[in-house]
């Protein structure tokens, strides 16, 4: 996988972007954690390419049926784990560094996405991050409804800010 992306992403040769970790179930799904050494360079966008051309070229080599998730790498374990759980939307992550375990909290409607078909998503995320992951559903916290503003109030507040 690293070799195929090396052929498609010339920025890897220059060191602008790199693959930090790979977790793969051949023929089914791959998760890549990528990072950038240069500020302002989007590592995920670099690997995906314009209109998905770069990742599509790699998929053509390995077989169309295999999906590739490209996620941003983070030094912070909780942030990295949250990214690795993509496409699930993570509410929070609790990390136990001593045991290399983490509990990932998702809303009830995201639980099946977080786990994935036959546990595939959580298994690949676990391999990618190096942490044993537990998925827990959390009931969403009801937020106080915000009073609705009408458009005139919003426009007037902007005009007042500009006037100051």
Automatic annotation (TrEMBL):
Traced from the root, the source organism's taxonomic lineage reads:
Bacteria, Candidatus Saccharimonadota, Candidatus Saccharimonadota incertae sedis, Candidatus Minimicrobia
Q: Name one GO molecular function term.
A: RNA binding
One cellular component (GO) term of this entry: cytosol
Q: Please provide the record's keywords in A-Z order.
A: Cytoplasm, RNA-binding, Transcription, Transcription antitermination, Transcription regulation, Transcription termination
CDD domains registered for this protein in UniProt: KH-II_NusA_rpt2 (cd22529)
Q: Where is the NusA-like second KH domain?
A: 79-141
Signal sequence span is: none
Protein name in the entry: KH domain-containing protein
Indicate the segments forming the Transcription factor NusA first KH domain, all copies. Answer: 2-73
Q: Which GO terms describe its biological process?
A: DNA-templated transcription termination; transcription antitermination
Known Pfam families for this protein? KH_NusA_1st (PF13184), KH_NusA_2nd (PF26594)
Q: Which organism is it from?
A: Candidatus Minimicrobia vallesae
Judging by the UniProt lineage, the source's domain of life is: Bacteria
Q: PROSITE patterns, per this entry? A: KH_TYPE_1
């Amino acid at each position: 996988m690293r070799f195929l992306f090396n052929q498609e992403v010339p920025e890897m040769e220059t060191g602008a972007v790199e693959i930090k970790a790979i977790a793969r179930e051949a023929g089914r799904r791959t998760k890549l954690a990528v990072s950038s050494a240069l500020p302002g360079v989007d590592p995920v966008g670099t690997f995906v390419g314009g209109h998905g051309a770069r990742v599509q070229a790699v998929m053509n080599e390995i077989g169309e049926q295999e999906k590739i998730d490209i996620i941003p790498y983070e030094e912070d374990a909780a942030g990295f784990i949250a990214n690795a759980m993509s496409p699930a939307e993570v509410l929070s992550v609790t990390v136990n560094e001593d045991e290399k375990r983490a509990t990932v909290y998702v809303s009830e409607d995201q639980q099946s996405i977080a786990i994935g078909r036959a546990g595939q998503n959580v298994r690949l995320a676990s391999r990618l991050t190096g942490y044993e992951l537990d998925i827990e559903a959390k009931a969403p916290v009801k937020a106080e409804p915000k009073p609705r503003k009408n458009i005139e109030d919003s426009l007037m507040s902007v005009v007042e800010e500009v006037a100051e």
